[in-house]
Design the sequence.
């Protein structure tokens, strides 16, 4: 007996690969249960509804109650009868799945994220994931950049290859505590969502030219009228078509820090930055910029570091967009090979703001250093699309005035 199941809806979670109906049909799902062969095909219907749980970013597409994990190369099925995910076993039957990468407690439509210690809920009415705030309310999460958990440890900071600049020496031992860091650089779409929230909540002043901070000191956060800006204001924030998943540039250090605060408030977390003095509350549970030590530790692969010249490889072409291969522009995040702990673009695409004031190194060991107490520049780390390979080295460093914004500079967050 042959049964044909028509799955009537599909939605993207993350489009790492080309998606076609023919591909799904060709791949298919066959399973044997009680002697019945089921062949799964796809019927696209714009008016159809679906009951899909939100899935981690490694999951590429859904079809009805089915999902395919690109990272694990496995098909999964949500069994609505007992509200559990099941995985297709090698013998073709479906087996219970107690944990999907990074998640626990699959009680539809609620999930618990181990890496952020927070509850999430899939709102079936508007097909968006919500996060539970500290006050018990639910807020739209918005599919912002996912984070990677980095286990703390001790590493050698600086130019261990002895081929760098003077400010990369002396090498010295640094110990950092465990932290979370964005897997990708903050994208234009991430910035659009957060700044729209900030605008709606009177946190910023916005014009066609610029975005200014309206909380604390009046600082320019985003330069919108620069020809290289891929975000614009037309009564609301918009991203240039096709640039949604490219890293956000033309952001000042103040803009990066403000983004961290706004993102924290959106999720019910305590902001880290005082937007008058721009001092950081290191004990707050919200988002902030990485310290220079955290950035280099993560770029080198954390506890799994192999001390490659670039972040994840000695071959710059495999891990970085830089002047030879970039075609004179930035690229969609995550399109090069990640490093040892699956963080992307730390050697290229855009340079990245760090929390620290820029200054010289000390030879003495330190634990969770925050950089110099005074100075006029903030640290920039990582290479970028117009720079030569030598600037993509994981130990390379520089600094810039926090007021500055550039087509070459972006950032990522930590917690």
Sequence:
């Amino acid at each position: 007996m042959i049964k044909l199941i028509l799955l009537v809806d599909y939605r993207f979670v993350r489009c790492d690969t080309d998606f076609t109906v023919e591909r799904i049909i060709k791949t298919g799902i066959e399973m044997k249960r009680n002697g019945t062969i089921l062949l799964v095909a796809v019927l696209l219907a714009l008016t159809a509804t679906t009951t899909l749980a939100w899935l981690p970013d490694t999951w590429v597409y859904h079809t009805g109650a089915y999902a395919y994990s690109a990272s694990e190369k496995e098909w999964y099925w949500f069994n609505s009868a007992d509200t559990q995910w099941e995985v297709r076993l090698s013998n073709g039957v479906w087996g219970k799945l107690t944990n999907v990468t990074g998640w626990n407690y699959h009680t539809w439509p609620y999930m618990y994220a181990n890496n952020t210690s927070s509850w999430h809920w899939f709102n079936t009415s508007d097909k968006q994931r919500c996060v539970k705030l500290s006050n018990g309310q639910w807020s739209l999460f918005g599919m912002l950049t996912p984070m990677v958990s980095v286990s703390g440890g001790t590493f050698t900071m600086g130019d261990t290859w002895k081929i760098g600049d003077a400010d990369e020496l002396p090498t010295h031992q640094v110990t950092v505590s465990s932290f979370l860091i964005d897997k990708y650089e903050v994208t234009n779409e991430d910035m659009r969502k957060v700044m729209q929230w900030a605008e709606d909540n009177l946190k910023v002043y916005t014009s066609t030219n610029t975005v200014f901070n309206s909380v604390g000191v009046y600082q320019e956060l985003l330069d919108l009228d620069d020809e290289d800006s891929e975000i614009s204001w037309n009564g609301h924030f918009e991203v240039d078509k096709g640039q949604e998943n490219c890293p956000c540039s033309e952001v000042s250090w103040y803009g990066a820090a403000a983004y961290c605060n706004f993102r924290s408030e959106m999720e019910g977390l305590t902001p880290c930055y005082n937007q008058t003095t721009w001092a950081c509350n290191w004990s707050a549970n919200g988002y902030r910029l990485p310290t220079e030590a955290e950035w280099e530790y993560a770029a080198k692969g954390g506890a799994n570091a192999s001390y490659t010249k670039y972040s994840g490889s000695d071959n710059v072409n495999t891990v970085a967009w830089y002047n030879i291969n970039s075609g004179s522009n930035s690229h969609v995040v995550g399109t090069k090979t990640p490093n040892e702990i699956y963080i992307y673009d730390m050697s290229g695409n855009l340079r990245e703001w760090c929390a620290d004031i820029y200054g010289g190194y000390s030879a003495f060991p330190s634990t969770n250093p925050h950089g110099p107490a005074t100075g006029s520049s903030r640290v920039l780390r990582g290479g970028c699309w117009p720079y030569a390979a030598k600037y993509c080295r994981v130990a390379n460093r520089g600094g810039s005035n926090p007021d500055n914004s550039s087509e070459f500079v972006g950032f990522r967050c930590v917690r």
